[in-house]
Amino acid sequence: MSVFYEFEHVDLFTTGALGEPGARTFYLQAQSGPKRVEVKCEKQQVAAIAQYLRRVLNDLPPPESRPLDNTLTLREPVSEAFVLGPIGLGYDRATDRLVVQLEEIGSVREVEDADDETLAAMEAMRAALGATGEGHIRLYVTRGQALAFCEHADRVIAAGRPDCRWCGHPIDPTGHACPRMN
């Protein structure tokens, strides 16, 4: 079954993580009126979205208003519509809104330069996640919502495990075998 949402007016666009540092699951969440949708994603995808939105915002006038920080908390219960794959981001000058397009992880047959064993393992993982490659969400967010998302995403990402000052890899609560210290 395919999932398609298009939110021309977004009440909420946020991210959050559930679980303990080192074992967190990240989500993107959007809401328009009573309709709410969550997408499971990776921390790096959240960081990439925030980085791109910041680049676009740097070329635009500062936002006139933005959501309050306490309204950006991930709302529970979380029920993911799909696992995030390709991300599309842009700016619509006519509406002065940033466009965020989220698509479900697609067929691994689209991956180039992978051997059959790797493709089979990726396809098995995709099937285990229940990915069908048919989910699609398009959001139109204001400059204020985009800026608030970026700042909140930074806090969510930073709340994880601290990075090693020598190698930059995350330090587990039980310690860290730093490749630079060996």
Largest sheet: 7 strands, mixed
Annotation, overall tally of beta strands: 7
Strand order of the largest sheet: 1-7-6-5-4-3-2
Please report the distance between the alpha carbons of the first and last residues: 50 Å
> Helix/strand/pairing class, anyone?
alpha/beta
* Helix count from the secondary structure assignment: 3
Task: List the helices and strands in order.
Answer: EEEEHEEHEH
Mean pLDDT: 85
How would you sum up the global shape? globular
Q: What percent of residues are in strands?
A: 25-35%
What does this structure look like?
The protein is an alpha/beta fold. Helices cover 25% and strands 29% of the residues. The protein has helices spanning 43-58, 116-128, 143-158; strands spanning 4-7, 12-18, 25-32, 35-41, 80-92, 97-104, 136-141. It has a seven-stranded mixed sheet. The protein is globular and about 55 Å long. The termini are far apart.
List keywords for this structure.
alpha/beta, 7-stranded mixed sheet, 3 helices, 182 residues
Entry summary:
This protein has 182 residues and is an alpha/beta fold. The protein has three helices and seven strands, in the order ββββαββαβα.
